[in-house]
Amino acid sequence: MLSLNGWVMDERSYAARLAASLLAIPLTIQTDRRAEIFGPTLGDDEGVYCVGLYEILRHFSRLPDVERAWPEGEARHALEWALEALESFSQARRQALGATLPEKAETDDVTLIFRVLEDRLSHAYLNGQEWLSGVSVGFIDIAVFPIAGLARDLGIGMDLYPAIRRFVRKVRQLPGFVTMPGIAACH
Length: 187
Fold this sequence. Notes:
The structure is a single chain. By secondary structure, this protein is α+β, with helices and mostly antiparallel strands. It has seven helices and four strands. It has helices spanning 11-22, 35-38, 53-62, 74-98, 108-126, 139-149, 162-172, and strands at residues 2-6, 27-31, 41-43, 49-51. Strands 2-1-3-4 form a four-stranded mixed sheet, with helices on one face. The protein is globular and about 45 Å long. The termini are far apart.
């Protein structure tokens, strides 16, 4: 059985848990505070060991019962953007939540992430796609969901982001959806 070593408050660990749950991949979850800094790791009984969300999602895509295709071409660039955005968001969130004095969490970089995500979701919707990954939820959507779902942790008002709010509602309705502390019940 696969074992995820992660931290409950880490967005990347959450994305790995969410992916496994949505794809019906059984996991045991081990708490590892190092994931807060270095990201999650995945291991199995056969010695397969994946470090980081990219490798974990890639491993999930290769499992025999998983019907999600690994993104190629332009979709691969979208996944790389999503993972980089998640990493930047994760750093900003850790800094804001760990600050001893009040700190402005919504930096220019974080605002740019939300604007690009809003544009990408709006573009997909206007082109008749339900998801960033195409006709069904995929790895790109899973990678950006923690950004969208945890916006309030950084004090980001969602009034300017209707496509992101719609996206969060759709993901929350998926069979197998799991939550983490900080994911708002509604947007």
